[in-house]
Amino acid sequence: MEKGKIVKALSGFYYVEVPNKGIYQCRGRGLFRKQKITPLVGDRVEIDITDNGDGYVTKIYERNNELVRPPVSNIDQAIIVTSAAKPDFNALLLDRFLVLIEAKRIEPVIVLTKMDLVSSEAERQMEAVQKIYENIGYSVVRLSSKDKNQVQQLVPYIEGKTSVIAGQSGVGKSSLLNALKPGLDLEIGDISETLGRGKHTTRHVEFISMNDGYVADTPGFSSLDFREIVAEELPECFPEMVDRQDGCKFRGCKHFKEPKCAVKDAVQTGDIPEFRYNHYLQFLEEIQSRKPRY
Questions:
Q1: Residue ranges for the binding site for GTP?
Q2: Residues annotated as binding site for Zn(2+)?
Q3: For the whole model, what pTM was predicted?
Q4: For residue 86, which phi and psi values (nearest 5 degrees)?
Q5: How far is CA 91 from the centre of its chain?
Q6: Which domains does the chain have, with CATH numbers?
Q7: Of 87, 156, 179, 290, which is most buried by a Cβ count within 10 Å?
Q8: Annotated binding site
Q9: Which residues of the chain have pLDDT under 70?
Q10: pLDDT of 79-90, one tens digit each?
């Protein structure tokens, strides 16, 4: 028996990296099918190696977390890439990504790209945005599309961790990965064809080894809805609300119509940015108006 990590899944095969021994092509035991367990890229596993050098996944260790799209597990952090221009910065979309990441208890890192494409006034606005998110407690990195050396700022975040990259199309995810790992040659504007759909007929997920860590090469979140989040959990996805919830009169306060709410008071005083609170209300309404699933 050997212990390792699934770093790639393709056509029913799982490629397991065993430290100091290499990567083994494995199949899953039929047992997993009976238990309705699908091995995921990122799983810590035990494998039984056969005489011909292939193997079987015999055990999957408990996951810290898992994502549905992309289907990966045991993620340490999500690098959320958002551009200052082309496409324009979209705070609503950024907050949507942040909520999805927070709900999975994954550490987010915000990367603002294409800073060289904005006017001086817009640059000041982006600096203000950076301060807002840093005050909430998020790490924020600003990058220029012209200065490829700037991307080295991300190395300390990636080192030794397992990361996914999230962000809408065109914000520079592929360029970022290509700059971090020269020779990778991911197509610009076409990163993994949204989980392999498109010109590639095979769907597969793969980890790229990078700076003693891994980055998933399927960074697109193909779904940005909140179907896995219930209304009671939403405030927990806003760190600035978590910090103040003990000051609310009612336990389990949703910070909406309840009186003596510390969060609403903080919005009034400007301690919580109004746009963040408005996004919260928008997401809350979306979750509460969702049709029940049976």
A1: 113-116, 167-175
A2: 248, 253, 255, 261
A3: 0.86
A4: 50, 65
A5: 16
A6: 2-62 (2.40.50.140), 67-216 (3.40.50.300), 231-288 (1.10.40.50)
A7: 179
A8: 113-116, 167-175, 248, 253, 255, 261
A9: 185-203, 217-223, 292-294
A10: 998 988 888 899
